[in-house]
Amino acid sequence: MITKSIKTFGRYCLFMTQVFRSPDKWKVFFKQLVTEISQLGVDSIPLVVIISIFIGAVIAIQMTINIVSPLIPSYSTGLATREILLLEFSSTMMCLILAGKVGSNIASEIGTMRVTEQIDAMDIMGINSANFIVLPKVLGFVLFVPVLCTLSMFVGLWGGWLVAEFTDMLTVENYLFGIQSFFNEWYVWYGIIKTVVFAYIIATVAAFYGYHVKGGALEVGKASTNAVVASSILILLADVILTKLLLQ
Predict the structure, then answer these.
(1) Are 89 and 156 in contact (CB under 8 A)?
(2) Each residue's pLDDT tens digit in the chain (248 positions)?
(3) Residues 200, 96: contact at Cβ < 8 Å?
(4) Between 129-166 and 2-19, two packed helices, what is the crossing angle to 10 degrees?
């Protein structure tokens, strides 16, 4: 098990040395980069918005229900909702969800190119296939993920506001006062930094599994599954390390 993991990590590092090289044609690269930003980033906006609204609303409801002590100020619901969204949900949980959407997309797309011998054809023509295919996907996703993180934070807080506005569980004034109280700007940057690291993990791990597919369509599906599982585990591991480094 350990030997296999070390071998896989070594293959991953060698793969990254192929990916992160100067593109042969910058014009083609930037054209692909814009396409990947649209496919991997912009197309994920509806998913991020929908999930963030409901999670923000659920957090506000649960905080209101569970904070019953008269010693706890009424604005604590807004404060707790903000902290949960900024510190964990809009970064870690959202990237775990995107690992399923974006990671499987990347792995299956590159895996299909491998089994249909498109990648082999590029290699025969002298093209660095890893750089040509993978680098725009990695950079495109990493560049756009901070936008998704910030959007998730905003929309999640708006979801909590909807609970305050359309129910009698808490007042809008207390909720708004809570999300403004004791605000720490570093928490926003902390979430953005984490999402950049997580986006790199998602894109590179998924590309690695897709690029090294051997076999047919069944192996493409297995590679997609393995990519999502591996990236999810690495995201959680990186979350622990980054939390220790950035919040100590």
Answers:
(1) yes
(2) 788 888 988 999 999 999 998 888 889 999 999 999 999 999 999 999 999 999 999 999 998 888 777 778 888 888 999 999 999 999 999 999 999 999 999 999 999 999 988 998 988 988 889 999 999 999 999 999 999 999 999 999 999 999 999 988 888 898 999 999 888 999 999 999 999 999 999 999 999 999 999 888 788 989 999 999 999 999 999 999 999 999 87
(3) no
(4) 100
109 HSE (CA, 13 A, CB side): 15
Q: Minimal CA–CA distance to 24: which of 133, 118, 138? A: 133
Q: Judging by beta carbons within 10 Å of its beta carbon (0-12, 13-18, 19+), is residue 176 exposed, middle or buried?
A: middle
Q: What residue has token string 């890893």? A: 130
Tokens of 91: 């970064």
Q: Characterize 8-34 residue by residue with b for buried, 16 or more Cβ atoms within 10 angstroms of its Cβ, and e for exposed.
A: eeeebeebeeebeeebeeeeebeebbe
- Specify the pTM: 0.92
